[in-house]
Design brief:
globular; 11 strands; alpha/beta; seven-stranded mixed sheet
């Protein structure tokens, strides 16, 4: 069986760490900078970075509309979660508050209780957002102080933290499982 081809939006932010994590898990990671590079991918990761810069660059290169048309699973982390929310690309039915936990000096690490995981997941929060509102079809998978920080809606997974900055691969594994599920449905 061929490895999953997972794109990582590489216009800004910490895409290299996602690429390394995906390759470590056996996926073929592809850096995406242009709309045509989405063709043939099994999934897409939108990494952390600066959400306003992401939106400007995506619009400049036509990636915003291309991502809206992309019909495979998408995983957004930190700024990637913001970019996918109701007020930006409108792909996930959540309202996200930027820098909700505070400025850079308020960045922190935490052990998260994640639905479906036996052991806590170490999470790195850097100028992190949180989810302020969730739509009826959104499943909250983890919270910090009652605020959703990991959620799934259909083929979308969003995290307020940076799973690519730890050695724990479980959140990326969860995304790859979603991709495999979707591929099975698409290919059937």
């Amino acid at each position: 069986m061929e490895p999953l081809r997972i794109g990582v939006l590489a216009v800004q932010g910490n895409f290299r760490e996602h690429v390394a994590m995906l390759r470590r898990l056996g996926a073929e990671a592809v850096e995406v900078r242009l709309p045509e590079q989405l063709d043939g991918l099994d999934g897409l990761v939108i990494p952390g970075g600066e959400s306003t810069t992401f939106m400007r660059l995506m619009q400049l290169y036509g990636l915003d509309d291309a991502i809206r048309r992309f019909d495979r699973p998408v995983f957004g982390t930190c700024a990637g979660m913001i970019v996918l929310d109701r007020n930006h690309l409108g792909l996930v039915d959540v309202a996200v508050r930027r820098n909700a936990f505070g400025r850079q000096v308020a960045s922190f690490e935490s052990d998260l209780e994640v639905a479906g995981e036996q052991e806590p997941v170490r999470a790195v929060f850097i100028r992190a957002p949180w989810v302020e509102e969730v739509g009826p079809d959104v499943e909250v998978l983890a919270e910090v102080d009652g605020r959703p920080v990991l959620a799934r809606e259909g083929r979308f997974l969003v995290a307020a933290f940076h799973p690519e900055l730890t050695e724990d691969t479980r959140i990326h594994e969860r995304f790859l499982s979603m991709v495999k599920e979707e591929a099975g449905v698409v290919r059937a």
